[in-house]
Amino acid sequence: MKEGHEPVKGRGRQDARAAERRTAMAPSTLRARGLTATDVTVVDLSQTGARIRTDAALATGDEISIGLSGVGARRAYVAWKRDGDYGCAFELPLEPGEVTQAFSSASVVRLGTPAQVTEAVKAGDNAELQSLYGTHSAWRLPWDAVAAVLGYGLLFSWLAFRYVL
Prior knowledge:
This protein is an alpha+beta fold. Helices cover 28% and strands 28% of the residues. It has 4 helices and 6 strands. Strands 1-2-3-6-5-4 form a 6-stranded antiparallel beta barrel. The model is unreliable at 1-16 (pLDDT under 50).
Protein backbone atom coordinates (compact mmCIF):
# COMPACT_ATOMS: atom_id res chain seq x y z
CA MET A 1 0.00 0.00 0.00
CA LYS A 2 1.28 3.47 -0.85
CA GLU A 3 2.41 5.67 1.97
CA GLY A 4 -0.36 7.98 3.21
CA HIS A 5 -3.19 5.84 1.79
CA GLU A 6 -5.44 4.25 4.37
CA PRO A 7 -7.87 1.45 3.52
CA VAL A 8 -11.44 2.65 3.30
CA LYS A 9 -13.41 1.39 6.26
CA GLY A 10 -16.80 -0.20 5.79
CA ARG A 11 -16.12 -1.64 2.35
CA GLY A 12 -16.40 -5.36 1.70
CA ARG A 13 -13.82 -7.71 0.24
CA GLN A 14 -14.15 -6.06 -3.14
CA ASP A 15 -14.50 -2.36 -3.85
CA ALA A 16 -17.95 -2.16 -5.47
CA ARG A 17 -16.85 0.81 -7.58
CA ALA A 18 -14.06 -1.29 -9.06
CA ALA A 19 -16.64 -3.25 -11.09
CA GLU A 20 -16.29 -2.66 -14.82
CA ARG A 21 -18.82 -0.07 -15.99
CA ARG A 22 -20.60 -0.09 -19.33
CA THR A 23 -22.02 3.14 -20.76
CA ALA A 24 -25.72 2.71 -21.41
CA MET A 25 -27.46 6.12 -21.85
CA ALA A 26 -30.69 4.12 -22.14
CA PRO A 27 -34.25 5.02 -21.13
CA SER A 28 -35.67 3.00 -18.28
CA THR A 29 -38.33 3.00 -15.58
CA LEU A 30 -37.81 3.48 -11.87
CA ARG A 31 -40.25 2.52 -9.15
CA ALA A 32 -39.85 3.73 -5.59
CA ARG A 33 -42.08 3.78 -2.54
CA GLY A 34 -44.36 6.79 -2.70
CA LEU A 35 -43.64 7.48 -6.39
CA THR A 36 -45.49 6.40 -9.47
CA ALA A 37 -43.41 4.71 -12.16
CA THR A 38 -40.92 7.33 -13.33
CA ASP A 39 -38.87 7.73 -16.49
CA VAL A 40 -35.11 7.66 -15.91
CA THR A 41 -31.98 7.35 -18.00
CA VAL A 42 -29.48 4.65 -17.07
CA VAL A 43 -26.18 6.46 -17.66
CA ASP A 44 -23.92 3.51 -16.96
CA LEU A 45 -24.20 -0.01 -15.61
CA SER A 46 -22.02 -2.57 -13.85
CA GLN A 47 -22.60 -5.90 -12.13
CA THR A 48 -22.97 -4.16 -8.77
CA GLY A 49 -24.95 -1.05 -9.66
CA ALA A 50 -25.99 1.70 -12.02
CA ARG A 51 -25.86 5.44 -12.37
CA ILE A 52 -29.22 6.92 -13.29
CA ARG A 53 -30.39 10.41 -14.22
CA THR A 54 -33.85 11.59 -13.23
CA ASP A 55 -35.87 14.58 -12.07
CA ALA A 56 -37.43 12.46 -9.32
CA ALA A 57 -36.48 13.39 -5.76
CA LEU A 58 -34.72 10.38 -4.26
CA ALA A 59 -32.85 10.19 -0.97
CA THR A 60 -29.74 8.24 -0.12
CA GLY A 61 -30.81 4.85 1.20
CA ASP A 62 -34.13 4.74 -0.70
CA GLU A 63 -35.11 1.28 -1.92
CA ILE A 64 -35.94 1.34 -5.62
CA SER A 65 -36.54 -0.95 -8.56
CA ILE A 66 -34.88 -0.22 -11.90
CA GLY A 67 -36.08 -1.78 -15.15
CA LEU A 68 -33.21 -3.09 -17.24
CA SER A 69 -34.52 -3.85 -20.72
CA GLY A 70 -33.54 -7.35 -21.76
CA VAL A 71 -32.72 -8.38 -18.18
CA GLY A 72 -35.73 -7.37 -16.08
CA ALA A 73 -36.33 -5.23 -13.02
CA ARG A 74 -33.67 -5.15 -10.32
CA ARG A 75 -33.99 -4.09 -6.70
CA ALA A 76 -31.43 -1.49 -5.66
CA TYR A 77 -30.65 1.19 -3.09
CA VAL A 78 -29.65 4.79 -3.71
CA ALA A 79 -26.02 5.07 -2.62
CA TRP A 80 -25.31 8.69 -3.55
CA LYS A 81 -26.85 11.68 -5.36
CA ARG A 82 -25.39 14.61 -7.25
CA ASP A 83 -27.12 17.11 -9.59
CA GLY A 84 -29.90 14.78 -10.77
CA ASP A 85 -27.58 11.77 -11.03
CA TYR A 86 -27.96 8.91 -8.55
CA GLY A 87 -25.61 6.03 -7.85
CA CYS A 88 -27.58 2.86 -7.18
CA ALA A 89 -26.25 -0.37 -5.67
CA PHE A 90 -28.04 -3.55 -6.70
CA GLU A 91 -29.30 -5.76 -3.90
CA LEU A 92 -27.89 -8.79 -5.78
CA PRO A 93 -25.13 -8.38 -8.39
CA LEU A 94 -25.97 -8.98 -12.04
CA GLU A 95 -24.49 -11.98 -13.78
CA PRO A 96 -21.60 -11.00 -16.11
CA GLY A 97 -23.67 -11.72 -19.23
CA GLU A 98 -26.59 -9.63 -17.95
CA VAL A 99 -24.51 -6.43 -18.03
CA THR A 100 -23.87 -7.01 -21.74
CA GLN A 101 -27.44 -8.13 -22.42
CA ALA A 102 -29.07 -5.14 -20.71
CA PHE A 103 -30.42 -2.60 -23.21
CA SER A 104 -28.93 -4.54 -26.12
CA SER A 105 -32.06 -5.66 -27.96
CA ALA A 106 -35.44 -4.79 -26.51
CA SER A 107 -36.74 -1.28 -26.92
CA VAL A 108 -38.07 0.75 -24.02
CA VAL A 109 -40.99 3.10 -24.45
CA ARG A 110 -40.97 6.12 -22.17
CA LEU A 111 -44.04 6.35 -19.97
CA GLY A 112 -44.66 10.07 -20.26
CA THR A 113 -47.47 11.79 -18.42
CA PRO A 114 -51.15 11.10 -19.17
CA ALA A 115 -51.38 14.53 -20.81
CA GLN A 116 -48.44 13.69 -23.11
CA VAL A 117 -50.01 10.37 -24.09
CA THR A 118 -53.34 12.05 -24.82
CA GLU A 119 -51.61 14.73 -26.93
CA ALA A 120 -49.62 12.08 -28.85
CA VAL A 121 -52.82 10.20 -29.65
CA LYS A 122 -54.67 13.36 -30.72
CA ALA A 123 -51.75 14.56 -32.85
CA GLY A 124 -51.22 11.15 -34.41
CA ASP A 125 -47.50 11.38 -33.63
CA ASN A 126 -47.26 7.71 -32.71
CA ALA A 127 -49.16 5.37 -35.04
CA GLU A 128 -48.60 2.34 -32.80
CA LEU A 129 -49.91 4.15 -29.74
CA GLN A 130 -52.88 5.45 -31.71
CA SER A 131 -53.75 1.95 -32.95
CA LEU A 132 -53.57 0.55 -29.42
CA TYR A 133 -55.65 3.41 -28.09
CA GLY A 134 -58.23 2.86 -30.81
CA THR A 135 -58.50 -0.93 -30.44
CA HIS A 136 -58.41 -1.30 -26.67
CA SER A 137 -61.32 0.06 -24.76
CA ALA A 138 -62.77 -0.88 -21.40
CA TRP A 139 -66.26 -0.72 -22.94
CA ARG A 140 -65.59 -2.87 -25.99
CA LEU A 141 -66.81 -6.44 -25.40
CA PRO A 142 -67.15 -9.44 -27.74
CA TRP A 143 -70.65 -9.73 -29.24
CA ASP A 144 -71.39 -13.02 -27.44
CA ALA A 145 -70.59 -11.45 -24.05
CA VAL A 146 -72.90 -8.53 -24.80
CA ALA A 147 -75.67 -10.97 -25.87
CA ALA A 148 -75.22 -13.03 -22.68
CA VAL A 149 -75.38 -9.95 -20.44
CA LEU A 150 -78.48 -8.66 -22.22
CA GLY A 151 -80.13 -12.10 -22.10
CA TYR A 152 -79.50 -12.54 -18.38
CA GLY A 153 -80.66 -8.96 -17.77
CA LEU A 154 -83.95 -9.62 -19.58
CA LEU A 155 -84.45 -12.91 -17.73
CA PHE A 156 -83.77 -11.28 -14.37
CA SER A 157 -86.14 -8.40 -15.19
CA TRP A 158 -88.91 -10.81 -16.22
CA LEU A 159 -88.43 -12.90 -13.04
CA ALA A 160 -88.45 -9.80 -10.86
CA PHE A 161 -91.57 -8.46 -12.55
CA ARG A 162 -93.35 -11.82 -12.41
CA TYR A 163 -92.59 -12.84 -8.80
CA VAL A 164 -91.76 -9.66 -6.92
CA LEU A 165 -94.06 -7.01 -8.29
